[in-house]
Amino acid sequence: MLFLQELKKTIFSISYILIVIVLIAALHSQDVLNFKEPKLSKPQVGENYGTTTKETPEIIMPAALKQLWTEFCVNNYETYPIGFIKNIKLNDSEQGKVIQIISTITGMDKDVVLKTKEQFFNSSGNIVPDIKNNINYSDFKDLMQQIDDILGGGSSYNKDSLIRFGIVPISYEEALHQYNLALNEDKITGGYARLFSDYAVAMVLSILPVFLAIIIFIKDRRANMSEIIYTKNISAAKIIITRYFAIITAIMIPVIILSYISNASIWGLYSNIRLDYLAPLKYDFGWIMPSVMIVTAVGMCLTTLTNTPIAIIVQGFWWLLDMIIGLKSVESAYSLFRLIPRHNAGTQSYFQTQDYINHFNSLIANRLLFVGLSIFLIIITILIYEMKRRGKLNEKFRFKKAISNFRNRKNQYST
């Protein structure tokens, strides 16, 4: 009964309706409610299968040096320290360090490096020095990391980012393997459900549920409902847990509906293939719901503790920071402490089944961690709520008492 009351109160609130509208608008803007990409088809010999990245030193090293050389010559280095582009212009001392690194990579003397730089402009940028023969890939990565350090981080020369220079064409065998994985492991629908989950969590569900949790708690406080609830013969655990699951249920209802609308948009294209019609549901509960749980728990805990909407600032900062950190690994990011797991390579996401399989254990660990953290925060919320219910954590009372004591002392001094 209490659950239905909380659910009804949540669903019929204006804030909830606005959140659902924002959710629909955000997903619609990314075309994930109606997938329009061509049907996934078996690759044929001789086709262009696109490109991928591999850690191939003989491809990465000259490509990285070419970009470094161009940026060095014009003294304009592109970096993304917080996810947004930042152009760096180095001073003479820092440029000197770059010259030394280029000299080490190419085997050229510093004077030769400078002379070649002058020729760069005369040749319209066509002159690029070669890598010396005896440099190994490990040393090259260390030197590139030094460049990244000079630039303040966030550049393409970071050790972990160098693989982006290793662009190679996908072979027929690789394309066929990707197709078979999408067909047999994902059963087609898994890839589409994964992309839906990526957008849903990244764009909306890692931030908006906190608003709902805050608004419901503050609305009760302003209507003096907290005093009424405090006096009822209902345990604090029952009140908090019921409200928590009511909010999560309210959020997940439109998510599940939209995930099936999204997935069903491609079912007609694969009428002759065995599809996994439960794929959207699996990703809704396994990928999306842990994010909804942690964001809701943060909102409830901080609002119960402070009686203020400070959780918006906390969760907003966490969401923005995680988004910025993840911009460089949007294609595949399943780190343990990432609020927003990413698996988004555009239309290629349906083919990235192997990458998903490789990181599946990391994803499971990540999702379980946030489920556990959510439970911990809800337990803390229950304890805070119970303390307030018993008058042991009444900020308003303590504030008034402090003012009263201050006035009494002031009157004593005045007499």
Characterise this structure:
The chain is built from 16 helices and 4 strands. Helix content is 65%, strand content 3%. The strands form 2 sheets. A two-stranded antiparallel ribbon has the order 1-4. It has 415 residues and is mostly helical. It starts with a helix and ends with a helix. It is globular, with a radius of gyration of 28 Å. Mean pLDDT is 86; it is low at 396-400.
Note the topology.
Elements: H1 2-11, H2 14-29, E1 51-53, H3 57-74, E2 77-79, E3 86-88, H4 92-106, H5 110-122, H6 137-150, E4 167-169, H7 172-184, H8 189-205, H9 208-222, H10 225-231, H11 236-264, H12 279-306, H13 310-326, H14 353-358, H15 360-389, H16 395-414
Helix pairs in contact: 1-11, 2-8, 2-11, 4-6, 8-11, 8-12, 9-12, 11-12, 11-15, 12-13, 12-15
- Counting DSSP E segments of at least 2 residues, the number of strands comes to 4
Largest sheet: 2 strands, antiparallel
Gross morphology is globular
- What is the CA-CA span between the terminal residues? 59 Å
- The portion of residues assigned to helices is 55-70%
- One letter per element, helices H and strands E, the order comes to HHEHEEHHHEHHHHHHHHHH
The percentage of residues in β strands lies in: under 5%
- The strand order across the widest sheet is 1-4
- Which structural category fits the helices and strands? mainly alpha
Q: Over all CA atoms, what is the radius of gyration? A: 28 Å
Low-pLDDT parts are 396-400
In short:
The protein is an all-alpha fold and 415 residues long.
